[in-house]
Task: structure prediction
Amino acid sequence: MKRIMKIILGFVVFIIIVVLWGSFAYVSDYKITNVDTSVSPDETYELVLQDVGEADFPFGSASGRLVLYEGKRRISKADFELFDDGGCIRSGIWEVTWHEDYVEVIISGDEQFDEQIILYFDGKKERKQLTDKDEYTEAGNITFAEYSGYWSYEGKTHEQILAEGGIELSCTITEDNQFSGTLFSQQEMMERFALIENISGKIEQSKLYFDYADDEWGNSGTLHIQFLSDSIYVEILNYKKADNGSDYGINGSFELIREKEDIEDKENIPEENSSDHVQDKLDEERIIEEQSFQIELNDWGEVRFVPYEPTPSERVHEDVTFYLLKDDEILYQFPYISKRPTNGMGYFWDVKFVMFTDTNADGKEDVVIGAEYMTGAGPQGAVPHVAVRIYEDCGDYFTYNEELSDKINNYLPWESNVLAKDIKRLIQLTNGNEPLTNYESYSGKWTVSPGYVAAYENPMPESGNELTCSISNGNEFYGNLFIEQEMTERIASVEDIVGTIQNGELFFDFADDGWGGAGTLHIMFLPNQINVEVLNHKIAEENVIGYGVSGNYEMTIRE
Result:
């Protein structure tokens, strides 16, 4: 009996070993796993990257497979070997580019030349090794700078989009594939605008992904931009509609071709002037006289500074231009803030202020400009907002200080009334040259921002919380604080606030806020806002509802 049990046990062990070996062999050599997929822009074709087995231990090759489908029908497949220090088949080893009648794949590994595999939609296949950069450039489009310009659905011009509705992508791409641009959409019937601005990032594997938080209607999502052979495919991923918002916004997918007008412009501009937008002669009607100044400017001598607005017929994002004139002749044109004469901030509206001040302590006066723009979208679309640009004098030319300009602009709320004195204060504080001792530039009325404004909120809500102040002798403060409860419209106030600002702070004890409440106001002067904090607040015994001046208030909006 024991002999029989030993035979049975040995047989069972043998079967287990065979099964385990077979499973290992299957996983190592035959198991097929879907690793990644790519879908054509029109969603007709799907390409699947598969891992076949496992990489040979320890640093051997890995077997992969490409399978092309049209719907559920398999068109073709292509097997390949990946030599990548024992690395497995994964999404990072392939680069996919969709064309009109084929899909192109570049397979990359650390121990091999890149391999190009082309799968045609009629079932044909081509493959070759790419042994140098030139071959890869032809196959993989290393640089996308030539895609800079204006792209739209059906190639409509911007004027046609304004009249008929449509979508437009304007972009600038550097030689190292850094992308910056704007996506603009207009509804045909209602003429409503939607806009995604300041799109940026690096194009990798012919694609760019950009997360955005607002399309001017409160919607958010991810832009998936793919650069095809003669078009740009734009798809909205992870689209999230604004709570209680309008149904309007930018959503769906679009295949954009170069605008007809942009093609003509490229063909008609001589090569040596293709990136040069200098005017030969100015149209007097386009000069913004109220912001033009005759000035003795550093080594430039006696010159006239002139802002020059774009013509009304130009495309929506054409930017304002600035010149120095001498004896009515153009002496110098200031550079645009991008490689093309566009701004990416909306429609140019006006120039609110111009300052000539030393921003970098080099003894030369630089040029600080506050230009106003509108988006045309949502309830704030018709509210001009200020964008500051700072030009530093470098002797025989000016350079745009993008870093300092961006720092200043980050302090400027969209709906705030930005004054030149605010910018001068911000430059001083941002550069950190010296502490602020003169606070007179804060004089005026400041309110709490209403926060995010949804597209359907028209007119825009207004805050009832405000601080009105007058500051003299550098730091002598006088003011009034009014607080309004949003639902009941109850008002509380602390009036006749007086004191001396020291180290950016003011403390003021009050005995009555209109509801019998008492406490201490702690007023803090930040770079471009005033914060009010109520300390030691005491509610009057007879105040059963508990209302009064209490809490914290961030006064970020200057009226």
About this structure: Residues 44 and 70 are 6 Å apart (CA to CA). Residues 25-29, 132-141, 264-277, 451-461 have pLDDT under 50 and may be disordered. The helical segments are 2-30, 133-140, 158-164, 260-268, 402-409, 420-431. Residues 2-30 form the longest helix (29 residues).
